[in-house]
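for the record, two folds in this file. i put them one after another cuz i was lazy. first one right below, seq on top, structure tokens after. the second one comes after a little note so u can tell where it starts
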Amino acid sequence: MHSSSDSSSPAISSLLEENLKTIEDSFANCTDLKILTWNYGPGLEQAAFSVYFDTLTKSTLKHFVKDTLQNLVPHELGPARTVTIDDVIDFFENKGVASPYVELMDDFQQVVSGILDGKVVIFFNGWSRAIAYYALDVEQRQASEPITESTVQGPHVSFIESLERNIGVIRSLIKSPHLKFEMFTSGEQVQRTVSYGYLEGVVKPETLSEFKQRIDGIVKEEIIEVSYLEEWINDSLYSPFPQVRYTERPDTAVNALLDGKIIAMVNGSPSILICPGSFIEFFTVSEDYYYRTIFSSLIRLIRVAAFIIALMLPSTYIALSTFHSELIPTVLLLAILNTREGIPFPALVEALIMEFFFELLREAGIRLPRPIGSAVSIVGALVIGQAAIQSQIASPVMVIVVALTGIASFALPQYNMAIALRILRFPLMFLAATFGGLGIMVGFILIYLHLTTLRSLGEPYLDSVAPLDLKRLRDAIFVVPRRLLVHSPRSRHFYKKTSGKNKIT
């Protein structure tokens, strides 16, 4: 949905020269703007010009409009009759053109927006309106396998940077009139189209109302990518835990809609934002329902274990080696003491050094080109780890702890949850080095208190856990067979309006 025309925008003149001057002033120094002046009619006595961006429009349609006008109107009026501007006005305003890609424009705000949208706009001498033909032709990436969400079983298709294409893919998977998509244009310079979708009757009305209220203020913001919306949607801007999810997979977006979620998209971004987000959902993927129940449940348990390892393993090792060595078996304790002999740093400093180098290697592997990024990460980790051990900067046990922590963070389906663990890991390490096991317990309690008070679009972040919902909790950690669920893949509510009130059925 494009923004309505500005009431202060100048109207289109009936004089061709004035319109031409306005266009030239509006798009000064735009060398890719093409203005084609031409005549039409049997005697070529009528003047007109078309304007378009040569870098946005299809080459096959640039002169199609001109050729059509020179031939179409005389066919309507007869070859012996002279074409006048009144005939053109009558033809386009009363008879029209049988094409969904044409529209009439009344002011220059519409004209400028149309040209920037990839339309060919035509002005006629003696007519105070313009015709616009949609002819956008910008190179787009073809649908391919998701890059950030690879899958073994299930659909191997991803969203692309075209908003219309992405909405079409979702509509092809959910053939229901209850699937609603609303759009608006954001930003004064980029003018990106933002769209959000939901299943009417499935999404909670109060959640949808809260979402609409929060995005009302972004109309004037320059939205480049869908992640720009997160700041307006989040309840807590400074919480390390993500309150929305992202996906590139259509099946994940469809499952989210069926679960009563709201999805948001931005033209030019291949990612889909899903909100509200709950803590349990960051451990689940739609692929869990493509395998047998026992296998998917095992995978989810591994993800939960990976979460605990990525969050607490370094701090636990620091606390045990510094304060609670009596809890370590004697043989293992002697092995640790032998490896730490000659290490000049305490366990905390040793862990900080290794974590810093690991994070550095991780970022280097992401930013480098793919063919060499993985090689640098693997070789760098091996070389630095071995060199640190031989130079007695770090012990072999610490290298193993840091490596297991990094591997565990990679096992989480959502990258933004792994980022949260990277942030929380360091305060826990300091608490463990200062107070031992008591510090870890205090840190864990503080994290749990934060999670219990955190909300996403007004919904509890620990949904189905706090407040406790046994029907939904049974499918949170373990994958319950679909035949035991009220609605597959998860138990859902359906909202109906009854006597002016929302009734849950």
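(here's the note) second protein begins now
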Amino acid sequence: MINSKKIVVVLPAYNAEKTIKQTYDEIPFDIVDEVILVDDNSLDNTYETAHKLGINHVIKHPENRGYGGNQKSCYNKALEIGADIVIMLHPDYQYTPKLIHSMSYLIANDVYQTVLGSRILGKGALKGGMPVYKYIANRLLTFTQNILMNQKLSEYHTGYRAFSKEVLEKVAYNSNSDDFVFDNQMLAQICFAGYEIAEITCPTKYFDEASSINFKRSSIYGLGVLKVSMTYFLAKTFGVKSKLVLKR
């Protein structure tokens, strides 16, 4: 805990058997109270490995629900067990758990309600192995999103995120897509609700075991992101009805 606030790390997992231990071993349990792993019907031994590591809350979907569907289960379970601060960390070891301290303290001290670990702040994205086409797409999408959503984020596409209980209880994340665009829908909901979003620099690590989507899925994701940003713009500027304005 920090300032009597319960900290829960959630791990949305899919075929993460080879990297769960590396990730779990670096979680700072001096402040983290609980860990939740949701296995999205993996084809490997993710579920069994998580149990062997001693993770208290391990959930397995009976069928693959998608990245967004996995996160919904993560956040719902975190709120169920009384989390005050929830850190979403990928168990593929692409993001270092060593930033959990910094992200948690910003929320625990009521400085921000949402914190992102940005791969784009600094100059490490390409050096860390991010494919050039993904880097360029990230920059172009983020530039467009910042204009449409009147924000100044360095990226909207990181999978390393921290939320306060207040944010998770306010935004209607369960109404979002079960696919990868969930992340952007949730950020749009948070911005629409009037919360400021903090970012801290996060080292970039790309390697064979790290999860990644292919070019086709990336293209579909990109179009979905633009749709979310345009929907936000229309809802904010002209009052067009949207799921983004829903509350839990």
